[in-house]
Amino acid sequence: xxxxxxxxxxxxxxxxxxxxxxxxxxxxxxxxxxxxxxxxxxxxxxxxxxxxxxxxxxxxxxxxxxxxxxxxxxxxxxxxxxxxxxxxxxxxxxxxxxxxxxxxxxxxxxxxxxxxxxxxxxxxxxxxxxxxxxxxxxxxxxxxxxxxxxxxxxxxxxxxxxxxxxxxxxxxxxxxxxxxxxxxxxxxxxxxxxxxxxxxxxxxxxxxxxxxxxxxxxxxxxxxxxxxxxxxxxxxxxxxxxxxxxxxxxxxxxxxxxxxxxxxxxxxxxxxxxxxxxxxxxxxxxxxxxxxxxxxxxxxxxxxxxxxxxxxxxxxxxxxxxxxxxxxxxxxxxxxxxxxxxxxxxxxxxxxxxxxxxxxxxxxxxxxxxxxxxxxxxxxxxxxxxxxxxxxxxxxxxxxxxxxxxxxxxxxxxxxxxxxxxxxxxxxxxxxxxxxxxxxxxxxxxxxxxxxxxxxxxxxxxxx
Length: 464
Known about the structure:
Helix content: 55-70%
Strand content: 5-15%
Number of helices: 19
């Protein structure tokens, strides 16, 4: 599909206002236990009080108060995560992608965590650079902007130029953040238990807090290793080398370490800008379709998946191109799993229940003796937008309703197997679903999906 004309484009960027530097990371296990513990108590207490009042309220009053409780809960998490940073903020970011845990109104509040992080003081960043690279930034770079270009839970990014004039960005991990992560990982258990109860009692979802905890820990450990992320940048650059519409920043190893990552600068608009009113719908449609293709190519063709889909991790350039950022969270699927997902996609498109059953067993969703009918029904619910060979408005798909239907089928038929690859694929799919719905792109998603599957089959045959 040829890219649309890039005008009119997103609104001009506003000049960044300097944010007040954040205080050093709150540390000390006892101090952080008190902070997280008080939040857990207030969150749990809110839902307990709401439940106690329920018998004396009308259904409308109950639903209204329940929604208010969700939103207040989300606001508490946003406030506390900004104060604590580190693992606790990562938890809030993860929750902001979990439509099975909280309603849309609460998720919108949680999403503020992704863009409202105050930077660390420059002196702390300068000292961290000197420790990691052996010299302060003024000795390493031709220019280095003291004001952070972007700030996140585990580190922040500064613009700079190398001696040869190349523009780069320097991602610097907050000093002491690894110790903070260890503390927070020990403190989040109680909060996860609270959200498991919310999922069970309010959203009628089966939430496994142990599964969530393991997912959080694995992801944090990976994201703390910037050498691993640099390797992922190189790998994704090679994987998408044949696609001129995808841009991957290139690392600069001479100016990088385990806690510092220097990479080429890419100018572009974050997805949130593309979603803004006034942006030409043709551009939105191009981004939606390109994002869709890029994600399925990772799953079906590469077996390597970027699993952190929040808006700050993607840029759209003027050309247009889609740029992937922050490859700290990447999952690789064994080739047998990758091929099984391709086979499953073909079976779903053909509505071949027998072939689906074989794939369910290979993928670890079912045992060979299990009845495949409930899982077939779940697949039809999840893949509804790509089953109809006609233009489909993604806003007609209601993810929370579908999630509750899927959970109901799973509970009724005791489908509880959760292979590890499922967690990361589901996160990526939820992110894609959210963006596609917001873009409002009405196209024939069935044919686009069929093309993605056919491309993967051809690529696999070519490799053989």
